[in-house]
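ok so I'm stuck.
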Amino acid sequence: MRMFVAVVPPQPVIDELSEFIEPRQVADAGLRWAPQEQWHLTLAFLPSVGDLRLDELTDRLATAGDRQSPFDIGLSGAGCFPDPDRAKVLWSGVSGDTDSLLHLVRTVRTAAAVSGLRVDSTAFTPHLTLARLNRPANVTRWLRIFDAHTGPVWTVAELELMESHLGEGPRGRPRYETRAVFALA
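replied:
not stuck anymore, here's the structure
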């Protein structure tokens, strides 16, 4: 199974960001906007989780949640991968208690690794993917637009283990299925 562990913003945060984006979405046909029902902050990407490892993973993620206190973050600003001149992904940044978010990332990735899973070791950049580009392009204008955005703060009180089903969503996109939810202490 292709899985990831994520923090999903609550609906009022999603609604506010969607309202900010909506009038701007038609301005650039080169952007493929991520559907708001898929908005999340990926903490750990797990490219291959076998059935035999799933129970241990869920137990360890539950323990990881028990060891983390809830914390407050918000969505603000923007960034892109790999850089503004040849961006492939446009994203919203994260503000607030990012130290606690980084601690949660380390704890979740450790839980997965101790469960015997291969964990994507890419350096963590707190973000929520907004759009992907059809081909690399300069997104400086978009970064300026999103730099003006500061969304509401929310308390991160849980994390989700999600399964990604490639090609099963609308227009051939992935479909995400929540497999388990873990409360923070």
